[in-house]
Amino acid sequence: MANYITLINWTEQGVKTYEKTLDRYQATSELAGKFGASLNQIYWTLGEYDIVGVLEAPDDETATAFALALSSWGNVRTKTMRAFSADEMRQIVAKASG
Fold first, then answer.
1. Minimal CA–CA distance to 24: which of 80, 79, 76, 64?
2. CB burial string 15-39: b at 16+ within 10 A, e below
3. Is residue 37 predicted with pLDDT exceeding 90?
4. Taking the CB of residue 3, how many other CB atoms lie within 10 A of it?
5. What value does the mean pLDDT take over residues 59-71?
6. DSSP string spanning 46-83?
7. What is the mean pLDDT of residues 43-72?
8. What mean pLDDT is predicted for residues 47-66?
9. What is the CATH number of domain 2-97?
């Protein structure tokens, strides 16, 4: 499974109902499961982004479909980046050097 870092900002709608953020987190975790993915970690943050999540999904298409479905609820906007573990990076470096 591939890992993705998701940078999340609340929309105007989402911030108006900030008190429901934990319920939305639970619903988001369930949504990820419907796509065969899992939301492994989530952090509410200070600074440029309101929330940072770590998603595990089978492929880029699944991660993108999840992000679209999540954003369609209207509470957040996401920026998602593929993340590589040290083992994956080792393989990438070996392939580049080979």
1. 76
2. eeeeeebeebeeebeebbeebebeb
3. yes
4. 16
5. 97
6. SSS-SEEEEEEESSHHHHHHHHHHHHHTSSEEEEEEEE
7. 98
8. 98
9. 3.30.70.920
Q: What is the CA radius of gyration of the chain?
A: 15
Sheet with 76-83, side-by-side order of all strands: 38-44, 51-57, 2-10, 76-83
Residue 98 has what pLDDT?
81
Q: Does residue 6 register a pLDDT over 90? A: yes
Residue 84: φ, ψ to 5°: -115, 135
Phi first, then psi: give them for residue 82, nearest 5 degrees.
-70, 135
The structure tokens 């949504």 sit at: 31
CA 78 – CA 32 distance, rounded (Å): 14
First-to-last alpha carbon distance for the chain, in angstroms, is 24
| Across 75-87, average pLDDT | 97
The residue length of the chain stands at: 98
Q: Is the pLDDT of residue 20 over 90?
A: yes
62: which 2 tokens?
A: 């699944």
